[in-house]
Amino acid sequence: MGMAKVVKCKQVLDLVKFRTGCWVKAFSPACPYSLLDFHVNLFSITTCGSTMEKNDHNQQWRLPDVGSLKFNVDGAARGKLGSTGMGGLLRNNCGVVVAIFSIPLGVLDSNVVEVMAIKETCRMVNEKLDWSSPGIIVESDSLNAVSWV
């Protein structure tokens, strides 16, 4: 018989904040923020030194239409060819997170990782959802990846 663990949403959010802080501090040691800053002010931190510039496209995330789901995906690389990972969030029309994924990938090209994030999203939709459902949106910030797919 498997074991189950009940975890509250606040515990998950606290863990996400802590791990985000650890990840940023590991990749950008010059980051002036402490782990406590990440925990208390995560959503107001926009830059950490010269390697963590905010990518400002003057766009705000928008809710999907009623009855629709939106997958926001991203790939990340330390340099053009470096340690990489990908992840994504699936949200409903109220903005509630329905699913989340995060996968380390090893050393790859940053553009390849962006495409792999979209591919993983499509795989998850094929396995878990029905493409004929109204309004499944996959959104990426990578113009290269979107144009290649």
Automatic annotation (TrEMBL):
Question: What's a single GO MF annotation on this record?
Answer: nucleic acid binding
Query: The RNase H type-1 domain covers which part of the protein?
Result: 72-148
Write down the SUPFAM superfamilies for this protein, in alphabetical order: Ribonuclease H-like
Signal peptide segment = none
Cite the InterPro entries for this sequence.
RNase_H-like_dom_plant, RNaseH-like_sf, RNaseH_domain, RNaseH_sf
Protein name per Swiss-Prot or TrEMBL: RNase H type-1 domain-containing protein
